[in-house]
Amino acid sequence: MDLLIIFISAAVVNNFVLSMFLGICPFIGVSNKISSALSMGMATTFVMTLTATVSWILYFQILIPFNLEFLQIPSFILVIASLVQFVEMVIKKISPPLYRALGIFLPLITTNCAILGLALILSMRNYTFLQSLFFGIGAGTGFTLALLIMAGIREELELADVPKAFRGAPITLITAGLLALAFMGFAGMI
Which terminus of the chain, N or C, has fewer Cβ atoms within 10 Å? Predict the structure, then answer.
């Protein structure tokens, strides 16, 4: 039950994008189409899950026992950069069209503050390895969920009669704000 609560909390209640406002750049940049949003969400979920497990091992098995906590941020950045390079190579090999569709946003996962935030939050919460794994999967699922909801709304907005002054970025930002308000309504549930 504890693992389910951690998962739901990370995915919905404390959604990294819509509650903590981390990872806004890919949220706005890749949410034009559902297909690209799903692909970016899956890649980010994979990186978040691996980051959660590797950073837990690194922090609790190496940095703390050897009193090297001051190397936490550089270590996490190195782990994230390595994992993103791995994901980029895999996607390029498996699906070149997807690799081209994601474009610059794939390498930007390295600088996605949601992933670094995940690693730092894990170290503060003192989760066990299994709890960290569920937190990483939940955070990635929540990131994907936010991207898909936004992409679906943006695809519908292309067909809507939006006043000229609100077309493009203004309506996107208004929509993001309304989504954030909706997700903040889950606060206090868990």
Answer: N
Residue identified by tokens 């699906």 is 95
Write down the pLDDT at residue 190. 56
Amino acid (1-letter code) at residue 36: S
Dihedral of CA 113/95/36/164: which sign? positive
- Would you give the end-to-end CA distance of the chain in angstroms? 12
Question: What distance in Å separates the CA atoms of residue 34 and residue 36, rounded to the nearest whole number?
Answer: 6
Q: Nearest 5 degrees, angle CA 169-CA 175-CA 178?
A: 145
Listed in sequence order, the residues at least 6 apart from 75 whose beta carbon sits closer than 8 Å to its beta carbon are: 55, 58, 59, 63
Please answer whether residues 80 and 51 qualify as being in contact, where contact means their C-beta atoms are separated by less than 8 angstroms: yes
Res 185: pLDDT:
86
At residue 25, the pLDDT reads: 86
| Inter-residue contact 42 to 36 (CB < 8 Å) | no
pLDDT value for 88: 87
Long-range contacts from 117-121, C-beta under 8 angstroms, 24+ separation: 117/16, 117/20, 117/22, 118/16, 118/48, 118/51, 118/52, 118/55, 119/51, 119/52, 119/55, 119/59, 119/76, 119/79, 119/80, 120/72, 120/73, 120/76
Find, among 59, 62, 17, 58, the residue nearest to 40 by Cα.
Answer: 17
